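Troubleshooting: if your tokenizer reports a length mismatch, compare your output against this known-good record of 209 residues.
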Amino acid sequence: MNIYKAALLVAVIVTAGVAAGPAPAAAQQANATQAKAAGAFVDDLADRAYAVLRDKSNNKTAVKAKFRTLLKANFAITEIGNKLIRRHVRSISPQQYAAYQAAFPDYVVDTYTDNLFEFADSDLRIVRTLPRGARGAVDVYSRVIRNDGAQPIDAIWSVRPKDGGGFLITNLTVAGVNLSLTQEADFAAYVDRNGFDALVAFMKSRKDS
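Known-good structure output:
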């Protein structure tokens, strides 16, 4: 190789290195910005949820209605619902699927509202955020501080970007328990014992209990 070709090769390598060098740094900065925004999203959502719980003018019916609004706006409801019945979704009819998805949001709210009242005097603090995957998903690590002196509870919020901006929650892990996996196993066991229609009927019955 003559000196001119060698010089040209070096120039190409150096130029490529300079061009490629900032890309990882830019990607890391973008991930950090995304993660920070996800943490702020969870923090704001927690503040709004606590405001509902602490408002003494709200009876249980009002609390459930406001939580239902928060749930539909901030959780990937259809995505989560699909995940919980993925073992059975190919074996059910479109009508059964529609009935399940119609019952699912109310089931979540009605199942967990009573437990949420126990945390009305608590505070949620964001501990750290961790980008996950290449599509902007973020795990938001938080800690629920109990003002009654009870042991703090750690929770991980799995969030992803939503169309048009903002985030949606796709899963929640509380005290090491992955709620989606646990609920999926419970639903599968119930369907195996009683059938899919019975599962939907059970979910609807929570509203009247």
